[in-house]
Amino acid sequence: MTKPKPFSINPSHARSFNAKWMPVTESGCWVWMGDVNITTNYGRICVNSRKVGAHRFSFQLHFGELRGDDLVLHKCDNTLCVRPDHLYLGNAADNVRDRTARTKLRQSKLDEMAIIAIFHARKNGSPYHDIQERYGVDSMTVWSIANGKRWIPVLRSAGLVK
Ligand SMILES: [Zn+2]
User: Fold this and answer.
1) Taking the model in full, what pTM does it have?
2) What separation in Å is there between the alpha carbon of 98 and the centre of ligand 1?
3) Separation of 62 CA from ligand 1 center, angstroms?
4) Tens of pLDDT along 51-101?
5) Last residue of a domain, which of 70, 90, 110?
């Protein structure tokens, strides 16, 4: 990753920035509708014939000048979001820590979905070997989910067991 360089913003940059995002109601994110770097999925904006990250631009516009080594990170995990209060300043270590935490969160969500899907699959009569193959689990795991013996809080919160 190349280190971003400092840039300065004039009112015409600010106007073109503000014409290029849309609020998304569910998340509150301001989604960038302008140019996007398709490799990184970050928005970008042209400032004095240089491409600048749209989220970096937003941060600087609202909170003041960035140094080249300041990293602008997303609290909302949406790389296209440019809403200033969804952004914060961090360093490379923060970035890695955040990403790890978010990955763990995603994995635990996926697991919950898999547990619920396994429960339904057994109720609908799917054979053990099909379920084991589909979710990469052993027969004991399938049995204990189908019979409400494990992950009870997950099953209970989905209304599948009492
Ligand atoms: Zn956001």
Assistant:
1) 0.59
2) 15
3) 15
4) 999 999 999 999 988 887 788 999 888 899 999 999 998 877 777 776 766
5) 90
